[in-house]
């Protein structure tokens, strides 16, 4: 269903949010009448940060205007006449607005579509309870804003009343001074005239002075009452700001961190920005009221506690706005957490209250610096670390830009590059892939006509700096652990040394699904297998096992020259590049060891096979199947092909390789292989472009009863598929390896061998073989 149709069914706060997306910058009528055309364009294909994409944006703008004009021309009747005028006006308006900056139109429409999709998705989410809870929370926040609005309006009315009363008081005070002057002038008059005028003036003076005394007390009470109301407003402001900054914004940052491990996207900042802007507006209004109240006090000093109260209020409101500004200077797009030197990278910094406080009127500059973990700790302790850095970043200065269509003030660092890194003395056996750094972003700007000057800083998520691609997987393990188990408000960048295995399972599962880009995660059986592998344990109940972060990186698996994480990272990489559709289909069991595979297959008919990830090779997958032992009648064995790797699949796909191997009949437990894999087979006409398989020779003892490996080229089954070209030699004992050890250097002349095979009739290649 079209997004716009669903968006029109939104209700309550979601509908209000959707409606707020539109205005003069993009009228809602344009969205309505061109909904199908708008949703059919490839807005995401345009890179907003690349000026060279402007011609694409201009083409879309021209098309949009043409569509509007066409829609206008087709309107008939009385109602159609009015709509025709309105749509024509919108076409002219959009052309005038975006003709010189078409990328802003793309930014605007992308923002609208993203927000609509999010609102529709949230409203139709099956997690109803969570959405109800979220809606309730949003409703409470909005109710608090309404209460703040009413309180601020109330104090504004009181302040105006106070000002009016004080102005009248000053007029009456001036009257009392005039009466006093008249009384003083009576001294120059004859006694008779003085006695005639003096009583009336004295009576009038007494009346005015009595009124001034009463009114002075009233003004003092008004001032105290206003200060108490401001205290109440500031208490509610603090509470609301705590909810938004310490709860909602921190949760967004936590989601952003988990998204670094492959968790769900952290979501947009639009709602948070709208809340922060409401806070900024309310805080600024109250600050101005407090300053006006102070001005009234200075204009008419009346002895009492009000001076101290106003000083306290002014200090409190300044602290509140300072906390708001410094907390809303955030990193919208994090730099890569595994950062390779001499490699371009990007990041985006955003000030959520920048538009509301008019910071963009004098755009501030943001500077990026890389600092160490120790420097980050010192920075948070307010220790002097000025000009300290742990490396040199090129293109590390950027001016913040204001995007009027979205109301965002942000700095886009597009071409940063880490030129060099200065490492600290590492602790003990800590490797370079365990050392954490962070990118410090800092800026300075003023608000309110230089009334307040802010120095703002924010730290990126921890980054691990590498100089070679071979360090990538160990660095990723460090980042995975930090993202998964960091606690809010921690000292940089402390994480627990160990957690329970189920906690690590969640992190590994999220990472796996994200890397493989699959909705099919790791099953309980998969996770038990991984626990057994990580701990070299045979326990089927790893619930109580602790897991140390070091276990992800430095220690090699028993009998191997690689770690658990390197092995698991290789599995993810292979699956992502070559096996994703088969993993999604459930065709790959994957996380099964040799013994498990044998136990599972021996109870199945001959030709049953399964796919499992290799234990002996990083990023390898092998095929295990059950068949007759050719050297012992009546005995069955489980065979294993040499592991396939990325190199193999770049030549020929897994599905085609399974199609080629005719002795593979049923995918475990009992699915015909063509039923599972045929939709991925290369069409027969394309199969003439044959790959060159490598062959190895070995001299095993087939009677040993051990599991047996076979080279990729072996095929004990007769040819049964007319579209399969025979490129395999007859199976011989010399092609089996009972121990699974292969001498890759002992290869045949593949090109000559394949050429010879292709000359033979297909039927004769497999004559006399046993299935």
User: On the 0-100 scale, what is the average pLDDT?
Assistant: 82
Characterize the overall form: elongated
How far is the N terminus from the C terminus? Answer: 52 Å
> Within the CATH hierarchy, at the fold level, what is the topology of the largest domain?
Glutathione S-transferase Yfyf (Class Pi), Chain A, domain 2
Strand order of the largest sheet: 18-17-14-15-16-19-20
Strand tally is 20
Radius of gyration: 38 Å
Which class do the helix and strand fractions yield?
alpha+beta
CATH superfamily of the largest domain: STAT transcription factor, all-alpha domain
Helical fraction equals: 40-55%
Q: Spans of 5+ residues with little confidence (pLDDT < 50)?
A: 687-709, 713-771
Helical run tally: 22
In what range is the share of β-strand residues?
A: 5-15%
User: What's the domain count?
Assistant: 4
Short summary:
This protein is an alpha+beta fold and 771 residues long.
Topology:
Elements: H1 3-7, H2 12-19, H3 28-33, H4 35-39, H5 54-73, H6 77-98, H7 102-123, H8 128-185, H9 191-259, H10 270-299, H11 306-327, E1 329-333, E2 338-340, E3 344-351, E4 365-372, H12 373-380, E5 391-394, E6 397-399, E7 401-403, E8 408-421, E9 437-447, E10 452-459, E11 464-466, H13 472-485, E12 498-500, H14 501-516, H15 524-535, E13 546-548, H16 564-584, H17 594-601, E14 608-613, E15 621-628, E16 636-641, H18 646-649, H19 654-660, E17 666-667, E18 671-672, H20 673-677, E19 708-710, E20 736-737, H21 750-759, H22 762-765
Parallel strand pairs: 2-11, 14-17, 16-19
Antiparallel strand pairs: 1-3, 3-8, 4-6, 4-9, 5-8, 7-8, 9-10, 12-13, 14-15, 15-16, 17-18, 19-20
Helix pairs in contact: 2-7, 5-6, 5-7, 8-9, 8-10, 9-10, 9-11, 10-11
């Amino acid at each position: 269903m079209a997004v716009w149709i669903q968006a029109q069914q939104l209700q309550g706060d979601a509908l209000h949010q959707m409606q707020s997306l539109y205005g003069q910058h993009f009228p809602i009528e344009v969205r309505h009448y061109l909904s199908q055309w708008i949703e059919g364009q490839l807005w995401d294909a345009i890179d907003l940060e690349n000026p060279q994409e402007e011609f694409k944006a201009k083409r879309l703008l021209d098309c949009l205007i043409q569509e509007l004009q066409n829609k206008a021309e087709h309107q008939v009747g009385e109602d159609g006449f009015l709509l025709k005028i309105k749509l024509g006006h919108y076409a002219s308006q959009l052309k005038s607005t975006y003709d010189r900056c078409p990328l802003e139109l793309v930014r605007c429409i992308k923002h609208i579509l993203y927000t609509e999709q999010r609102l529709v998705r949230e409203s139709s989410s099956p997690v109803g309870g969570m959405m109800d809870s979220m809606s309730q929370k949003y409703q409470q926040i909005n109710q608090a804003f309404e209460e703040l609005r009413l309180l601020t309006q109330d104090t504004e009315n009181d302040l105006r009343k106070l000002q009016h009363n004080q102005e009248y008081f000053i007029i009456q005070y001036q009257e009392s001074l005039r009466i006093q002057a008249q009384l003083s002038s009576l001294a120059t008059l004859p006694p008779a005239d003085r006695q005639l005028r003096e009583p009336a003036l004295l009576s009038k003076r007494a009346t005015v002075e009595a009124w001034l005394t009463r009114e002075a007390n009233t003004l003092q009470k008004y001032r105290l009452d206003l200060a108490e109301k401001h205290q109440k407003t500031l208490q509610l402001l603090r509470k609301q700001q705590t909810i938004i900054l310490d709860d909602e914004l921190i949760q967004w940052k936590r989601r952003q961190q988990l998204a670094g491990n492959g968790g769900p996207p952290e979501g947009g900042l639009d709602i948070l920005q709208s809340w922060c802007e409401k806070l900024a507006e309310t805080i600024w209004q109250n600050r101005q009221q407090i300053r006006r109240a102070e001005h009234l006090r200075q204009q008419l000093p009346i002895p009492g506690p009000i001076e101290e109260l106003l000083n306290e209020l002014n200090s409190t409101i300044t602290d509140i706005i300072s906390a708001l500004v410094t907390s809303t200077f955030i990193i919208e797009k994090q730099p890569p957490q595994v950062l390779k030197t001499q490699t371009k990278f990007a990041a985006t910094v955003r000030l959520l209250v920048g538009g509301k406080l008019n910071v963009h009127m004098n755009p501030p500059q943001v500077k990026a610096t890389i600092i160490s973990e120790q420097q980050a700790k010192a920075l948070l302790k307010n220790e002097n670390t000025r000009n300290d850095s742990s490396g040199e970043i090129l293109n590390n200065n950027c001016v913040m830009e204001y995007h009027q269509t979205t109301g965002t003030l942000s700095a886009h660092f597009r071409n940063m590059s880490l030129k060099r890194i200065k490492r600290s003395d590492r602790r003990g056996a800590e490797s370079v892939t365990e050392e954490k750094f962070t990118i410090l972003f800092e800026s300075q700007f003023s608000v309110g006509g230089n009334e307040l000057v802010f120095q703002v800083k924010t730290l990126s998520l921890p980054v691990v700096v590498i100089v070679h691609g071979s360090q990538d997987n160990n660095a990723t393990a460090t980042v995975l652990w930090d993202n998964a188990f960091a606690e809010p408000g921690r000292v940089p960048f402390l994480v627990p040394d160990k957690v329970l295995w189920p906690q690590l399972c969640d992190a590994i599962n999220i990472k796996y699904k994200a890397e493989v880009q699959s909705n099919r995660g790791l099953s309980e059986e998969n996770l038990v297998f991984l626990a057994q592998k990580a701990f070299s344990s045979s326990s089927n109940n790893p619930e109580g096992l602790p897991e140390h972060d070091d276990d992800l990186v430095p220690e090699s698996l028993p009998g191997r020259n690689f770690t658990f994480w390197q092995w698991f990272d290789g599995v993810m990489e292979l699956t992502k590049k070559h096996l994703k559709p088969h993993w999604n289909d459930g065709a790959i069991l994957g996380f099964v060891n040799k013994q498990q595979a044998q136990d599972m297959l021996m109870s199945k008919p001959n030709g049953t096979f399964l796919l499992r990830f290799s234990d002996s090779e990083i990023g390898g997958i092998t095929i295990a199947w059950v068949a007759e032992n050719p050297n012992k009648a009546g005995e069955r064995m489980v065979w294993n092909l040499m592991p396939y790797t990325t190199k193999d699949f770049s030549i020929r796909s897994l599905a085609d390789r399974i199609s080629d191997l005719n002795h593979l009949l049923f995918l475990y437990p009992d699915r015909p292989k063509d039923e599972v894999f045929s939709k991925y087979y290369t069409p027969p006409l394309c199969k003439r472009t044959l790959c060159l398989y490598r062959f190895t020779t070995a001299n095993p003892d087939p009677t040993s009863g051990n599991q047996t490996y076979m080279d990729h080229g072996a095929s004990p089954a007769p040819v049964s598929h007319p579209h399969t070209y025979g490129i395999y030699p007859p199976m011989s004992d010399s092609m089996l390896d009972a121990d699974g050890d292969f001498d890759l250097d002992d290869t045949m002349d593949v090109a000559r061998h394949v050429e010879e095979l292709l000359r033979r009739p297909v039927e004769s290649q497999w004559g006399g073989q046993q299935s």
